[in-house]
Amino acid sequence: MPELKVKGITIIETFAEAFPMVGTRIIITAPTMEWALISARTMTGFATSVIACGAEAGIERTLTRKETPDGRPGVAVLLFTMNADKLQTQLRNRVGQCVLTSPGSACFAGLEGEKSLKLGSSLRFFGDGWQMSKVLGGKRYWRIPVMDGEFVCEDKTGMTKKAVGGGNLLVLGKTHKSVLAACTRAVKAMAALPDVITPFPGGIVRSGSKVGSKYKGQIASTNDAYCPSLKGAVKTELPLNVEAVLEIVIDGLTADAISKAMYAGIHAIAKGGAREGVTHITAGNYGGNLGPHHFHLKEIVG
Amino acid sequence: MSALIFELKDTPGQRLDLSPLVPERLAGLSRKDIEALPIGTTRETLTVGDAFKVKGKDAENIHFVGTDDRCDKIGASLAGGAIFVDGDAGASLGAQMKSGKIGVTGSAGVLAGASMAGGEITIRRDVRAQACGVAFGETMGMKGGFVTIGGDTGPLLGERMRRGLVVVGGRAGDYAGGRMIAGTLVLKRGAGRYAGYGNRRGSLVFLEKPKDILPTFSDCGVMEFDYLRLLEEWLHAQDIRIRLGARARRLMGDMAVLGKGEMLILA
Questions:
Q1: Residue B261: closest C-alpha in chain A
Q2: Which domain holds residue A204?
Q3: Which of A74, A242, B128, B189 has its CA 20 to 30 A from that of B37?
């Protein structure tokens, strides 16, 4: 079978294995876009992987004044966990500590889901009895007095159980510089798409992991098959000339959104062509038995 | 399908109870059945056919044409569908309605939208006393929904209101928001005396500074309210032209009762 190539970069015939997650979207507004972003970045900080962060979160996109409920600049944030209870706890803690505390902020539902999560419904107690409830068009909002005025927060937001986490691309290249440049482009291309986030730092993860370890109690450890420095010692997946591998992990509200993001990512990576130094694009999986969602690179590129 | 139209033949000799003329009760009835419905309120029997010329078919979309202030209970207990009144409405317009829409080109009598729980009422001109107040047999006023009044209102607008939003284009009468439990009144041209008397948790939003403020409302000063921006955006989405901005003076009260209500006077 001939190798599949895009602009000279080999696309390995494999698939990304992804897992069902629960997800939600909220909208954060502030007096300026700068402050909406500060609030959103704080809320989505330390949310790269559910393994130790409790949640995976990121900024989906910025919103213009016309797109927000209060006519101020805003940011849409996506938050994912493995089950609804954890999502509820993470949402309450993150909005409570990072959005409620942020100057001039307000927080609204960003999803009409089949199920709902408490938003202002639990944060209102911060008002110590001085909170006020207002219903507009069937939606309840809480006005919580704070030192710079009032924190306005919608009572509930929607939740979806159809979210997918762990869509991914592994990018192999001849120099660290070329792989980083290609991945940065890919993250930027994916950022423009709806319903997805790339939760790792700048969207990119350099420490891909495998399940388990030689050490007791270490549930995940370095993915030695993709470590260039171990090529001669382990059953490597890398050609000898590969110097660096970076991974882009994608979480989305739907499987379709992840497919589209992977498509955009692959083409953004390939934009530089083989001449840039990227040699292969592949994806991570566990043999296909763990996650129900399989994103085959061949189908995505095709 | 064309709207079901009721055209008033001439001034009726008695007040009319038009509460049977709602989509829920008219669905599936033939014109003959509809014309036989009693709508009189005195010993003298009066049917729909006696007072109205009936045209059209669609019971989900009812039009009243040429009605006056003796046509009571239009859309009372409405639970879906639309009613359009080309003329005036009498007492208890849309009282205790749960959902649906009512539009009136003229004025409405007392108790318009009284104890309504949901839906929308739009009245182009004035309303009389106790609009969105307490309907007969109820303990609370308006419990939800959205009412716009283009003109002035009589006294006791939103009396014992529990939830919902009322926008008044003209001037509200005395005791606007009297004994209000919660909910919101937006008053473009102010109100008469004793506004917010006995207000517990309700909001009265004044676009113009009211002349008389009860001494039991205490001043919290001027600040920005994101809620006003949210309210303005929502009203714009309902095609209501209004400019609220964000800055307002907040007075909390009525301190003679719970005192968690407010007047927001735009600054």
A1: A132
A2: 4-18+163-301
A3: B128
Q: Which domains does chain B have, with CATH numbers?
A: 1-66 (no CATH), 86-266 (2.160.20.60)
DSSP 3-state of B42: coil
Quote the ipTM score: 0.94
| Angstrom distance (rounded) from CA B136 to CA B119 | 19
Angle subtended at Cα A24 by Cα A22 and Cα A30, rounded to the nearest 5 degrees: 155
Across the interface, of A72, A130, A152, the residue whose CB is closest to B227 is A152
Residue A192 has phi, psi (to 5 degrees) of -75, -10
The domain spanning residue A210 has which CATH number? 3.30.70.520
Residue A136 to residue B234, Cβ atoms within 8 A: yes
pLDDT in tens, A72-124: 999 999 999 999 999 999 999 999 999 999 999 999 999 997 899 999 999 99
The overall average pLDDT reported for chain B is 96
Does the beta-carbon distance from B230 to A72 stay under 8 Å?
no
- Quick one: closest CA in B to A142, which residue? B227
Cα separation, B195 vs B189, whole angstroms: 13
Instruction: Examine the pLDDT at A1 and tell me if it is beyond 80.
Output: no
Q: Which residues in chain B are contacts of A130 at CB distance < 8 A?
A: 260
Percent of chain B with pLDDT over 70: 100
What's the whole-model pTM score?
A: 0.94
Picking from B146, B184, B238, the nearest residue to A134 by CB comes out as B184
